[in-house]
Design brief:
The chain is built from two helices and no strands. Helix 1 (3-16) crosses helix 2. The chain has helices at residues 3-16, 25-102. The protein is rod-shaped, with a radius of gyration of 47 Å. By secondary structure, it is mostly helical.
């Protein structure tokens, strides 16, 4: 038994035994032995339950950290996907902008060709 458990057992025994008065020496020894056994059992169970609670807390904390990590990764992936989408849209916009000026325009200074005068065809 650990030292903390021994201290707790001694404290409980000292708190309980003075309340049990009026026994013969033989019966007092029996009560003392039974009390120490019972209190030792109670202290062991108490320590076990405390340890289980600490494990559960650690497990819950680990799970919360894991969930937070998953959420952060998911958010990072979403952000990366949005960034890729935005980069693709910018590239597409840049390509469209480059293609527009490349289309040939009619020169503004060029003169229009005059229509030829029609000559009537001779009949046979």
């Amino acid at each position: 038994m650990s030292e903390d458990n021994k201290k707790l057992t001694d404290q409980l025994v000292q708190a309980i035994l003075p309340k049990l008065k009026g026994l013969t020496e033989k019966n007092a020894k029996k009560v003392l032995n039974e009390t120490e056994k019972s209190i030792t059992s109670v202290v062991k169970k108490y320590s076990k339950l405390i340890a289980e609670q600490e494990k559960e807390k650690a497990k819950a904390k680990h799970k919360a950290e894991k969930d937070a990590k998953k959420k952060a990764e998911k958010a990072a992936k979403k952000k990366e996907k949005e960034a890729k989408k935005l980069a693709k849209a910018k590239l597409l916009a840049a390509l469209i902008a480059k293609e527009s000026p490349a289309k040939p325009k009619a020169p503004a200074t060029a003169t229009k060709a005059k229509p030829r005068a029609r000559t009537p065809k001779a009949k046979k």
